[in-house]
Design a protein that fits this description.
Radius of gyration: 33 Å
CATH topology of one domain: Kinesin
CATH architecture of one domain: 3-Layer(aba) Sandwich
Bound molecules: adenosine-5'-triphosphate
Structural class: alpha+beta
Shape: elongated
CATH class of one domain: Alpha Beta
Number of helices: 24
Helix content: 40-55%
């Protein structure tokens, strides 16, 4: 009896010590008691039972020993194979390197565009391809000139053929080299076709990104890839991942500027850099950037690129042991077309664009010339183009120039210029003359290296297969040999880790494998401040993949004072930036307006969300509009929070006053009746007050005067194709109201269709103004308006979140390289991340101990668990 009492007391002491009682429901205790009941009968065990147990124990020990031996054997084999694989990887790298060195650090390919006039190419064209590396240019009837390049692509060469020659350079980027691939040539010669391609036959950028990710998967290296895209337009750098409306509407946003980094590389300050984890994400960004390129119709090309378009893929290596650099870059550049102004008859802006392009191409020529002559001064600084590419045009990088020529007679002059330029570039690595013997020797070496590379590749494939097979066997051993309690303890640990880091791996921890008492209750979900939705099994594959950084959030809001509505619905909605800049001076800045000194590399995490498991809204985050999450490896750090907007739910309502944006109903009986049935379901005599602590929007809204249908209709008319990225097709009433409010705000009244046209609203535009404006939008600038709305929304959220910064300081200090994860609920319960983490740890330990006790039941009865309840 005494021992029972002490057991009860022990449970109560534990409760009072860690305040855990609140989480223990009767269901929990019943589950634990059931476990105990299912164990062999209580009391003193019968002798035969003891004997049987001893026998089982003995045989299980024997089996355990055998399986342990097997596991050890597999582990040994695996270790051997992995080390062999590493050797093969190193060998492959070395061979590829030698191969590229032999082929030259600067390689020049020539691609001849098919003729557009449909004439007999070989007879009439002045450009005649001779073999795989030479072409003949018929300058006149009696005179012709021979050019040779590393590769000549005939007019009928496919995009596949072109890319197969480029692929080794892409692979070398994964091995730690800088690389630059650029398309050069006169306007209309096919540069954009080669780089961008068409949906049916995608170009080098598409294939390059895919090859890069494939190579990363194969080489099994931990690499962080980030994507940037910019253009050099009229000598200015423009971020192509920032919509023009945002560039214009935020005068505080600094221009992009090129700076030398301490490692001798070049860095572009303020350039949006978005971390991508797979090919699809990078591709989406690329498409987005392409939409924003400056193109125009000229005499020579209907869709002429009026700028140099530059795609940068930056690769940061975590394990640098086997790589040359920690960070390296791949530039893929679609240069603007060289053109003769007389020929294009360009005027005004087109003339200026052509002039700027020609100037920078000429600067590129000077740099190439200086490199060729091995001058001590290389005039990189003469143009933005050469400055940006500086670290990829040197000796230690792989450069590939794709020169494009038109086969038309009338383009002969331009073809001669382009081919001469390319020949000059090629001399950099070839020297002025190479004997025939030397050439043959080199070719033989290249072929032999190619064979070796193929052998190594085969060997790698085979080894990879073996490793996979062994891994499977190993997994089957380890899963069967684990005792249930050990498995549970490990899973619990996993849960702890995942909760701490915000990682939600649904497959690893499905609720069906958990005892009921380990499953979250509504109460525990609220109390812990951790999103427990990941316990729920997802029915579709798409809903399984969730962003690491995404934090689902319960939202509650109230329109009517006494009728708060709360929802546990987790929506993969809009992620907004929580600016964690530790420099207080920059408090009011968005990621694009950071001071350059504070930010070396700014990486935005672009999140691709699938459909929410519970909610119907399916939204994609678009960089800058919904502003990607931003991190930095400089002292400035940023984290992520989510901001779900969904139909019916309006604002996140939290306890802290400075974090809250909520609508409260105000009784204003003198309001005029609603224009139409108010979609917000406001009483026609009501108005809403938008309360922002940051003062961004502070005014009463007379809801009865807002024609929501007009606002919504306008946004519904918005065409996704214009923007190139899927957008929500409809806007809910809350967003309409927000839009309306935004247009009334003096802080957010500038919209621009392009650089030339800026429309500005006054401080208090009337409804008429708003309607006029929405009509304007309907005529052509919906997308920009849309961007503006999102940017405004993001900025507001970003500012609101800055009050959290201090709370992240500890995390930031601990791990500079990792991405800070924000668990928003932690704040709403008034605790710091550390406190909650410790608390979670204790509670989990407690669970494990109880489970252990439940299974082994050394000295107590069910009373112990009942004691926990009292
Ligand atoms: N190899 C090719 N096969 C089929 N069509 C091609 C090829 N190269 C170019 N074209 C076509 O020629 C036209 C002009 O090509 P493109 O726009 O790529 O030229 P560009 O060099 O980028 O011109 P600009 O410098 O003015 O932008 C396009 O319609 C394109 O589809």
């Amino acid at each position: 009896m005494d021992s029972r009492k002490s057991v009860r007391n022990l449970a109560q002491s534990i409760n009072s010590l860690i305040g855990f009682k609140a989480h223990l429901t009767s269901a929990w205790v019943t589950s634990v008691c059931n476990i105990i009941r299912n164990c062999p009968a209580g009391g003193a065990p019968a002798a035969h039972l003891v004997a049987q147990r001893d026998f089982e124990k003995h045989s299980s020990v024997k089996n355990d020993a055998e399986s342990n031996m097997d596991v050890l054997r597999i582990q040994d084999e695996l270790a051997l194979l992995v080390s062999y694989m590493n050797q093969l990887n190193a060998q492959r790298r070395q061979l590829l390197n030698e191969f590229l060195d032999l082929k030259g650090n600067i390689r020049v390919f020539c691609r001849i565009r098919p003729t557009v006039k449909g004439c007999d190419f070989y007879q009439l064209s002045p450009v005649v391809p001779m073999n795989s590396s030479g072409l003949l240019l018929k300058v006149s009837a009696s005179k012709s000139k021979h050019y040779s390049f590393d590769k000549v692509f005939h007019p009928h060469s496919s995009q596949d053929e072109v890319f197969s020659e480029i692929e080794p350079i892409i692979k070398s980027v994964v091995d730690g080299y800088n690389a630059c691939i650029f398309a050069y040539g006169q306007t209309g010669s096919g540069k954009t076709f080669t780089m961008e391609g068409t949906p049916e036959s995608p170009g080098v950028v598409y294939r390059g990104i895919r090859a890069l990710f494939d190579q990363m998967t194969v080489s099994n290296q931990k690499l962080i890839v980030s994507f940037s895209m910019l253009e050099i337009y009229l000598g200015r750098l423009k971020d192509l991942l920032v919509p023009p409306s945002s560039r214009v509407s935020d005068p505080a946003r600094p221009c992009l500027s090129v700076q030398a980094d301490p490692n001798g590389g070049m860095e572009i300050d303020n350039l949006t850099s978005i971390q991508v984890s797979d090919f699809e994400q990078a591709l989406k960004l690329y498409r987005l950037g392409c939409q924003l390129r400056s193109t125009a119709s000229t005499n020579l090309n209907k869709t002429s690129s009026r700028s140099h378009c530059m795609i940068r893929i930056k690769i940061n290596s975590i394990n640098v042991a086997e790589r040359r650099r920690e960070t390296n870059k791949l530039w893929m550049v679609d240069l603007g077309g060289s053109e003769r102004v007389l020929k294009t008859k360009a005027q005004g802006r087109r003339f200026e664009e052509g002039k700027a392009i020609n100037l920078s191409l000429s600067a590129l020529g000077d740099v190439v010339d200086a490199l060729q002559r091995k001058k001590c001064h290389i005039p990189y600084r003469n143009s933005k183009l050469t400055l940006v590419l500086q670290d990829c045009l040197g000796e230690d990088s792989k450069t590939l120039m794709l020169v494009h020529v038109s086969p038309e007679e009338e383009d002969l002059c331009e073809s001669i210029c382009s081919l001469n330029f390319a020949t000059r570039a090629r001399r950099i690595h070839l020297g002025n003359g190479e004997s025939q013997d030397a050439k043959e020797h080199k070719n033989a070496a290249i072929i032999s290296l190619q064979r070796k590379m193929e052998q190594v590749e085969d060997e790698r494939q085979e080894t990879r297969r073996k490793i996979q097979k062994l891994n499977k066997t190993f997994e089957s051993f380890t899963t069967t040999s684990k005792s249930p309690s050990l498995q549970l303890a490990e899973d619990s640990q996993l849960f702890m880790e995942e909760s701490k880091h915000g990682v939600k791996n649904v497959q690893k921890f499905p609720s069906s494998e958990l005892p009921r008492f380990m499953q979250p209750t509504v109460c525990s979900t609220r109390k812990f401040g951790v999103d427990m939705t990941f316990f729920e099994e997802r029915s579709t594959a798409t809903s399984r993949r969730r962003s690491i950084l995404h934090q689902a959030k319960s939202v509650s809001f109230s329109f009517k004072r006494n009728a708060a509505c709360s929802s546990d619905c987790s929506d993969s909605g809009i992620s907004c930036v929580v600016d964690l800049n530790l420099n207080s001076n920059a408090d009011n800045e968005t990621e694009h307006s950071q001071g350059t000194a504070e930010c070396d590399i700014r990486t935005a995490h672009f999140q691709m969300h699938g459909k929410s498991s519970k909610c119907s809204s399916d939204r994609e985050i678009v960089p800058q509009n919904h502003m990607p999450t931003v991190t930095s490896n400089s002292p400035m750090r940023k984290g992520v929070s989510s901001f779900p907007f969904q139909k019916g739910n309006f604002r996140i309502s939290e306890n802290k006053k400075d974090e809250v944006t909520e609508y409260q109903e105000e009784d204003k009986s003198d309001r005029t009746p609603s224009v139409e049935k108010n979609p917000l379901n406001f009483d026609s005599k009501s108005s809403a007050t938008l309360c922002h602590s940051n003062g961004f929007l502070e005014e009463d809204i007379d809801c009865s005067t807002v024609d929501f249908s007009q606002v919504r209709q306008d946004f519904d008319n918005y065409n996704d194709e214009e923007w190139g990225t899927p957008m929500p097709a409809t806007y809910n009433d809350a967003e309409c109201l927000y839009l309306y409010q935004t247009t009334r705000s003096s802080h957010a009244s500038q919209y621009a269709k392009n650089d030339d046209a800026i429309e500005t609203f006054g401080d208090s535009p009337s409804i008429q103004n708003l309607k006029e404006h929405t009509e304007t939008i309907a005529k052509g600038s919906k997308a920009l308006f849309h961007c503006h709305l999102k940017e405004t929304r993001q900025r507001q959220f970003s500012q609101r979140s800055q009050s959290h910064r201090a709370l992240f300081k500890d995390e930031l200090k601990q791990d500079k390289a990792s991405i800070p994860i924000v668990t928003p609920r932690a704040f709403s319960h008034g605790g710091t991340g550390l406190l909650i983490s410790v608390k979670l740890k204790i509670q989990m330990l407690y669970f494990c101990v109880l489970m252990g006790l439940g299974v082994h039941r050394p000295w107590y009865e069910d009373d112990f668990f009942h004691g926990l309840m009292h």
